[in-house]
From TrEMBL:
<feature type="domain" description="PRORP">
    <location>
        <begin position="320"/>
        <end position="544"/>
    </location>
</feature>
<feature type="domain" description="PROP1-like PPR">
    <location>
        <begin position="25"/>
        <end position="84"/>
    </location>
</feature>
<keyword id="KW-0819">tRNA processing</keyword>
<keyword id="KW-0479">Metal-binding</keyword>
<dbReference type="GO" id="GO:0004526">
    <property type="term" value="F:ribonuclease P activity"/>
</dbReference>
<dbReference type="InterPro" id="IPR033443">
    <property type="entry name" value="PROP1-like_PPR_dom"/>
</dbReference>
<dbReference type="GO" id="GO:0001682">
    <property type="term" value="P:tRNA 5'-leader removal"/>
</dbReference>
<dbReference type="InterPro" id="IPR031595">
    <property type="entry name" value="PRORP_C"/>
</dbReference>
<keyword id="KW-0464">Manganese</keyword>
<keyword id="KW-0460">Magnesium</keyword>
<comment type="similarity">
    <text>Belongs to the PPR family. P subfamily.</text>
</comment>
<protein>
    <recommendedName>
        <fullName>ribonuclease P</fullName>
        <ecNumber>3.1.26.5</ecNumber>
    </recommendedName>
</protein>
<feature type="region of interest" description="Disordered">
    <location>
        <begin position="1"/>
        <end position="31"/>
    </location>
</feature>
<feature type="domain" description="PROP1-like PPR">
    <location>
        <begin position="132"/>
        <end position="277"/>
    </location>
</feature>
<keyword id="KW-0378">Hydrolase</keyword>
<dbReference type="GO" id="GO:0046872">
    <property type="term" value="F:metal ion binding"/>
</dbReference>
<dbReference type="InterPro" id="IPR002885">
    <property type="entry name" value="PPR_rpt"/>
</dbReference>
Amino acid sequence: MGFDSSSLKSSKTMENNSVVGKKSKKDKANSPVVHLRVQLDMCSKRGDVMGAIQLYDKAIKEGITMGQYHYAVLLYLCSSAAMGIVQPAKSGSGNRPVLNNGKLVDFDNSLANGSTKPYYLEDDEIWVSEDVKKHALVKGFEIYETMCSNNVPMNEATLTSVARMAMSMGDGDMAFDMVKQMKPLGINPRLRSYGPALSVFCSTGDVNKAFEVEKHMLEHGVQPEEPELEALLRVSVEAGKGDKVYYLLHKLRTSVRKISPSTADIIVRWFESKAASRVGKRRIDQKLIKEAIENAGGGWHGQGWLGKGKWSISYTVVGDDALCKCCGDKLALIDLDPIETEKFAESVASIAIKREKNFSFQKFQKWLDYYGPFEAVVDAANVGLFSQKRFMPSKVNAVVNAIRQKLPSRRWPLIVLHNKRITGRKMDEPVKKALIEKWKNADALYSTPTGSNDDWYWLYAAIKFKCLIVTNDEMRDHTFQLLGNEFFPKWKERHQVHFSFSNTSPVFYMPPPCSVVIQESEKGHWHIPIASELDYDSERTWLCIRRANSHAVKEDSVAITEDSQSLNRNKEHTKSTTQTEVNSNFLPLNNGNYDKPQKLAEEMYKNITSISFASVSSDQHTVLSEIETAEMLGNCVIDFQI
Ligand SMILES: [Zn+2]
């Protein structure tokens, strides 16, 4: 985390007014308070924590009254050093001090005694020695105490710095307390404020506290992103918490959609675990599941784990027919429904109307009503600037002609272009003018006015007409962030056409045949897309995860009754609350002859219970290993619930 001065602007002004406001400009520049701030800023830029501490000691000795800004710089430097890495302020500010590249960074372990630079360090980061770490931590807390006793107001940056110092000592409770202090002080916690507490609880395996942090985040309007969800997933998998893993897969599905390779590794570890083979409903009401999938808009039912037994995990691809090349399941295609589309179009229009002057957006809406509908929209600036800085109408022309051939009606697409591209001096060449004239005559060109943001125009038109938008703009900048996460990612995936050029002919990358998002099937199987560099990678890798035994999922009509019998006998046998259930999914139950398998199951059940309960009083570890042996012998999973 670089030092983020933006959150300190208000305090800067406050301090100027209260301490030096009445003095002349010259006095102000020479005042010890301002001088100290300049010097601290220089330490921050150099990442010089020891220099900053010396300045602090000197200021205390000389009785200089420091403000929030001074303390914030000092605490930032001390907390960075306490964690082992100081990043000079000039290199910009990341939001995530703890969770780097999707990996939970354990500063203590990785930096304590190794001699190689950890992979996540950037060139300008300074790795401090053990002595400096210890000293910075002690001084950091001293500075925090002074700040408290002098009643200097806290802000998000100072409290987060203290939380980072707590993290460096492995004190998750203290790190969490720092975030909890924010709201009562009128401070809004940020995503980075939660990093220290979450990091400690996740690395110490404290699932409950890690999820307390997550709950606090949500209650304060902070949405965890993939690194935070990955950390929560890791701790849940390690603890074998099936319900938490299920919950997190849902969170990843809605907020991340396709996951990073490191998150995929954790998911694979989960499905390979014993805990994963034990979770799940054996009796499934298919009608209920189907309804749930429909209500969820496809690709998800949310009814919990289905089936039972070991999982089979494969890395695979999905064909152009949306069929999984591994299991043959058809993957869902999830688009906005008509009502959602209308709501989404309205919200885009209302933002655009507020931002565009002189009713220009309303004029555009009227124009669309008159000249529409269109089957495709072309973001002409993006196309015309493809792979070079100069706007090339010939590229737009090539794309427009080629996309027309793909449309059922062969109608012209709508070409949205800012008028500066049309009236610019470079557009005087006759060939370019002729192209513009051609589009105008076809009623296909809309030129957005001076001062407008053409993004709103092509986006709105494509949503309104539920049609394709040709652009390589990934729509990630602040304009699109205003649209939120509810509709936009779904819509974008189904409607965006990427393009490139092969020689001079355009090549189109149409929307993928199925939705590239974590999918849960009605059988309880999973298809999980892994993120790649290109958003429109046709050879995308998917995880296909099914129960190894296809008989694991049975409808009510085929459900067998031996489970309940086993449970009853089990209770009589042990006279305790311990329940042992033998899962006999491995048996061929669909052959119409139930007698033989049932006898087999009873035999096996007897053997297993005699092994496990004989040793239950002696040693817990022995029980576990006995059960594992029994599982190996029986090639099945014993569900052991306490
Ligand atoms: Zn599959």
